[in-house]
Write a structure and sequence with these properties.
The protein is mostly helical. The protein folds into 3 domains: 161 residues, no CATH class; 207 residues, Methane Monooxygenase Hydroxylase, Chain G, domain 1; 206 residues, Up-down Bundle (Methane Monooxygenase Hydroxylase, Chain G, domain 1), CATH 1.20.58. Helix 8 runs antiparallel to helix 13 and helix 25 runs antiparallel to helix 29. The longest helix has 38 residues.
């Protein structure tokens, strides 16, 4: 791992800029009001700013601003209501689980709504520590409102000063995620590669790219200065996004039969050279991503062009030496791979130019795509809440779980002889998540981070006595805590604990030991409660709902394949519809991959049929990859490649997918149907004729002929159809196994179908 690159990427990311923004918004009122001997007011304002900052996730400015305003008002209302109810214990014990349920359920509306709910629950928890009376209740709520307003103003001013910064940072993250995807693809060229391991990396990389692409698309297409005003910077950022999206598509549409390639060419070393070249291109993308985030231009490494020429020469020499009828398909694949690598290198060269924001780039015309190709619109429909009021809904179970755990934690805290018992409740609120795996991870990270942070805090206060030095360390700890909050949680907790201990030490140096003890004990108790209720009110286990994701993947890929394959039989397609169905297939694959990863984080006893699900995920990913590769040929299809002879293999593939869908849905039990092989292999006759003609040309010394190009393209197209059919049959076998397990577990064979490639 390149730690220097990781550091450069992180310090220029929106994580750090967000951490600095939150730190300034929290520290400024504390320092100012402390100067005037009004520290309690400063702390209340700082708390309001902190709560509102929780919802300031990256996104279009109007979404951020609306979220901040709504959060500020909710914090104000919750502070009033909870402070009024807090003196009456039975009333607060009714209010606590009720508000926990409400503010957890709003998570159905997405990440920003979840953040608003978390901010409200944070204020609710902290009200258990303070007892306000009379007008102090109103004053405290107003101070919180003032703090939230102060943060909104600060965030708005910073945005107006650098309106494109958040887009540049998010775009840099998107480019670097694409680089990770390229690195995952490069692993297929390693000798002795394993599909299982490689596809796990592909799954993770694809989910990451999909998430970051969606965020950048929202920022670009919902920002007026880019969509309407067409500023130079906005145009450049749009070009970067479109070129990166095209580059990612090239990487997806270059799927090959890697096992066969290794069989043919491992000894030649050319695959290892391809892998290194792809990895070098990924490193270039990393540099572009960092340049975008930092605002500094990057430069293209011209050695890449020399390496590309060397690979062209190597392939030519290898073809002269090793080409024979048995491996002609392998050489066709090598040429297509190298073409894709050169295409990616060309786009990377252009992306480097974009980072300079040279005004000459204005001359380049861009066709702004339809935003619907990249973003989706989700209205805040009250019916969504109603539809989720069911034990089949994971968010409903989570809301019940957090309500019950919070009430239990509050009751337990009343009987403990600790002065900061609200930390127990706070730990429960922060740790409990809808997914079991994330809750377990957060539990461990919260506990370990607290212990490590407490140890560092004790060491620092033992060694450092100067008050100014402690304040500087506190400031640094705050920046780190809020910077790592959304990046690496355990690191965030370490610095969060450190800065809290330093802060309490500055407020009351004599009480440090008690605070240190309370922090560790309360966090441990909260962790135990969170873990306990995670089992008592268990979430919907992934094996109970993974069929939903599997079914959707089959529907989307089948539609995608039917649309992409139609031009090869002479039918025209709507380009906009093609983009739409392709996007749906990749989104549904990302959702399935994410669900599978969540399944792996659950208890072993709940990981039912995990080997079959993994095989299904890998196979459907290959199915989509080969379909995407087929779309590459469909985009520039010549008349000589259009024939009805594709119909038998197309129909057989669609039939296998339909059978798989029926089996996964459990709507009907089907018997295996074997299409006639002779019909499916009609294309082989034409290929054999071309191969024979090409052999004759090679024997007579004719290397570059029309037959070579015709054979290369036609065989590549035909191979993709055969790959898709073979994988579709494998998916059907896996689906049949899964169906048999769910209906007749005792009679099921445990043999998995072999990998398609």
């Amino acid at each position: 791992m390149d730690y220097l690159k990781q550091y450069r990427s992180f310090v220029n990311s929106h994580y750090v800029s967000g951490g600095v923004r939150v730190t300034v918004s929290v520290l400024a009122p504390v320092l100012i009001f402390n100067f005037y001997n009004q520290l309690p007011i400063g702390l209340a304002i700082a708390l309001g700013a902190l709560c509102v900052s929780i919802t300031d996730n990256p996104g279009p400015i109007h979404h951020r601003r609306n979220g901040l305003i709504v959060c500020n008002l909710i914090v104000f209302v919750v502070a009033l209501v909870s402070a009024l109810a807090q003196p009456v214990h039975w009333l607060f014990m009714v209010l606590l689980p009720l508000l926990c349920f409400i503010f957890s359920m709003i998570g159905v509306y997405g990440a920003r709504a979840t953040s608003v709910g978390l901010a409200a629950l944070l204020i609710l928890v902290l009200q258990t520590q303070h007892h306000y009376e009379g007008l102090d209740i109103l004053y405290n709520a107003l101070y919180l409102l003032a703090g939230g307003t102060w943060y909104i103003l600060l965030s708005s001013v910073l945005y107006s000063l650098r309106p494109f910064k958040i887009i540049q940072q998010s775009l840099g993250e998107y480019v670097m995620a694409t680089a990770d995807y390229l690195k995952a693809k490069a692993a297929f060229y390693e000798t002795g590669f394993t599909y299982e391991k490689n596809y796990e990396e592909i799954f993770r990389a694809q989910v990451s790219v999909q998430e970051k692409q969606t965020l950048v698309a929202e920022l670009l297409f919902k920002t007026r200065s880019i969509v309407k005003e067409s500023t130079h910077t906005g145009r450049v950022l749009m070009m970067v996004f479109l070129d990166t999206a095209d580059l990612f598509e090239i990487a997806m549409t270059s799927h090959q039969d890697y096992e066969k390639l290794h069989k043919y060419f491992d000894e030649s070393g050319i695959l290892a050279e391809y892998r290194q070249l792809i990895y070098t291109l990924a490193e270039e993308l990393d540099e572009i991503g960092i340049a975008l985030k930092s605002g500094r231009p990057s430069g293209y490494d011209k050695k890449i062009d020399e390496e590309l020429q060397e690979e062209r020469d190597h392939l030519k020499q290898l073809r002269l030496k090793e080409l024979k009828p048995a491996n002609i398909d392998g050489f066709i694949s090598l040429r297509h791979i190298l073409d894709s690598i050169e295409n990616i290198a060309t786009r990377i060269r252009t992306l480097h130019q974009y980072t300079s924001y040279d005004t000459k780039l204005k001359k380049k015309k861009i066709n702004t795509p339809d935003p619907e190709e990249f973003i989706s619109h989700e209205a805040i429909d009250p019916q969504l809440i109603i539809d989720n009021l069911s034990f089949r809904s994971n968010i409903f179970r989570h809301s019940l779980r957090i309500s019950a755990a919070a009430l239990f934690a509050y009751i337990i805290a009343q009987f403990l002889p600790v002065s900061h018992s609200y930390w127990i409740l706070l730990t429960v609120i922060v740790i409990l998540k809808p997914g079991y795996g994330l809750t377990r991870t957060r539990n461990f990270e919260r506990l370990m981070g607290t212990i490590i942070g407490a140890a560092f805090g004790a060491l620092i206060l033992y060694l450092v006595k100067d008050r100014t030095a402690i304040v500087l360390m506190l400031t640094f700890s705050m920046i780190c805590a809020y910077s790592f909050m959304r990046k690496t949680y355990i690191v965030s907790v370490v610095f969060m604990t450190l800065y809290l201990l330093l802060m309490f030490h500055l407020l009351d140096p004599k009480d440090f030991k008690a605070i240190l003890t309370d922090r560790i004990i309360d966090t441990a108790i909260g962790s135990v409660i969170a873990l306990l209720f995670g089992y008592i009110l268990a979430p919907v286990w992934e094996h109970e709902q993974v069929n939903i994701y599997m079914s959707q993947v089959l529907k989307d890929i089948q539609r995608y394949y039917q649309l992409i394959s139609s031009p090869f039989t002479g039918k025209s397609i709507d380009e906009r519809e093609a983009v739409f169905v392709r996007r749906n297939s990749w989104v549904s694959l990302a959702n399935l991959s994410d669900a599978f990863n969540r399944m792996l984080s659950e208890p072993k006893s709940k990981q039912k049929n995990v080997e079959y699900v993994h095989q299904f995920v890998a196979s459907t990913h290959m199915l989509a990859s080969h379909t995407a590769t087929l779309s590459y040929y469909a985009d520039s299809l010549q008349p000589e490649y259009i024939t009805d002879e594709y119909l038998p293999v197309i129909n057989a593939s669609v039939h296998a997918m339909q059978q798989s869908l029926l089996l996964i849905d459990g709507s009907v039990k089907t018997d295996a149907v074997k299409p006639e092989t002779a019909q499916i292999r009609l294309l082989d006759q034409r290929i054999n004729q071309l191969v024979k003609k090409r052999q004759e040309e090679i024997q007579s010394g004719q290397m570059e002929t029309q037959t070579r190009k015709l054979l290369s393209d036609f065989k590549s197209i035909t191979d993709q159809f055969y790959f898709i059919y073979k994988i579709a049959v494998d998916v059907e076998k896996i689906s049949r196994q899964l169906s048999a397990i769910s209906h007749e577990p005792s009679a099921v064979s445990r043999e998995l179908p072999a990998n398609s490639n």
